[in-house]
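A note from the maintainers: we've had questions about how concatenated examples are separated. There is no special marker in the raw files; a new sequence line simply starts the next protein. For clarity in this README we add a label.
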Amino acid sequence: MYIRYKLRLLLAAGLLLLTSAFSVADPLSSWNDSDSKKAIIRFVEKVTRKDSPDFIPESQRIATFDNDGTLWAEQPVYFQLIYALDQVKKMAPKHPEWKTQEPFASVLRGDTQKVMASGKEGLMKILAATHANMTAEEFHANVSDWLKTARHPKTNRPYNEMIYQPMLELLDYLRANGFKTFIVSGGGVDFMRVFAEQTYGIPPDQVVGSSIKAKYEVRDGTPAIIKLPEINLIDDKEGKPVGIHQYIGQRPSFAFGNSDGDYQMLEWTTAGTGARLGLLLHHTDAKREWAYDRDSHIGQLSKGLDDAAKKGWTVVDMKNDWKVVFPSPR
């Protein structure tokens, strides 16, 4: 009897320990126990507890994330630009005039510096050539095929694996607590919609980005959306709150960016009433990723660093706040 009683006690204790282990499982296990992690958990707990004065109804729990440099890497240049340059090379045999026509000639020579020096006008020519005058389905297929074979020049990973493990955990944590997660990025909306759901669990209708105009027409008896070489929305800086207003229709309560291009999104988010949280990812890890901020040609972060404290924004230090950066290779 005593032995059976002891066995029952041991079994009960084991079940209790197992239950406790699951109940205290860390949803942000790739984050160090830093102030930024504590700020996130503190915010989520207070806005989801019904007896809290800061409670936010589930229908109003909107979280917005920049993509480039926030959810995935952005060095040495934006990945969408690398896609566009690769497309120019792929299309070149049908455009012999590009051998002497800038900025295409510089692309074909591999002179990325000169391409960047061509400025907005040159980049618009490249985007028009590689993103427009095709159906939405054709563009989707082109991007999908590129992602299957293209590799990052430093890590040799597929670009859609250059994502941040701590951010994947954060997205899951927010969704588990009733938040609807959106991408709000300066990148092209049609480009991001190709991979956002599989990569981040964010469906196409929750992606807001820069866009070109489009029209409806029937081609060869088939209805189609045709992408046009005209700008519709630049979803960067002041354009981000406008994009959020037009496509989401609610002011977020949570916003996460990494550059001065996200400044207005965080500013507008945290200016609302009630509990708000704005975060900036500071790239400080030259060993595991890259270290850059004020003088970078990509993802410049200067004004955001200067104003974060007075705005009440949390700065996440990649080197000190994250245990890991990228997920384990698949």
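[label: protein 2]
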Amino acid sequence: MKLKMSILAVFLLILTSCGQDQLNNKEVASEVSEEKMLWIVEIEPGSNEVTFQMKLTNNTSAEQIVKFNSGQSYDIVVRDSTGKEVYRYSKGRMFTQALREITIASGDTKTWESTWDYKKDGTRVEEGTYQVTTELKGVVSEGGKLIVTGEFVVPSE
């Protein structure tokens, strides 16, 4: 049975801020009223893999510039119930070392998607609940990092 869980983190970006929040979509829906950048992560576990869809939405009245110091746009870290890391998107990948930026117009969304096959070092992890942390690796015009944490269930084989 496919389970689709949406996790929505809303961050008011302040030059000195650097925050991390755990929110479920019911709590956040009523809070989306002020000008904010939205870092939305949808987690869809399947029988053989989980899909992470990350969306950065500009909910402000002005365009926002996101600056990156490499070709890496995001990172995903999955930990088991003991806190042991079982997956990191960036592990074993190489990214260009170039400064780059993307511009997101007011009301627009930039989307990234990634999948994980439930394997750690070639072996499928045990069924159970896993914590995931996603981080936008760029800095938005107004400063601060966008990080969201959540959890999902890896089904039995």
